[in-house]
Amino acid sequence: MFKLTKIVAFCLVAFVIAVPAFAQADDAGADAGGGFSMNLGSALGAGLVMIGAGIGIGRIGGQAVEGISRQPEATGNIQTAMIIAAALIEGATFFALIVCMIA
Question: Whole-angstrom Cα distance, residue 67 to residue 88?
Answer without folding.
Answer: 20
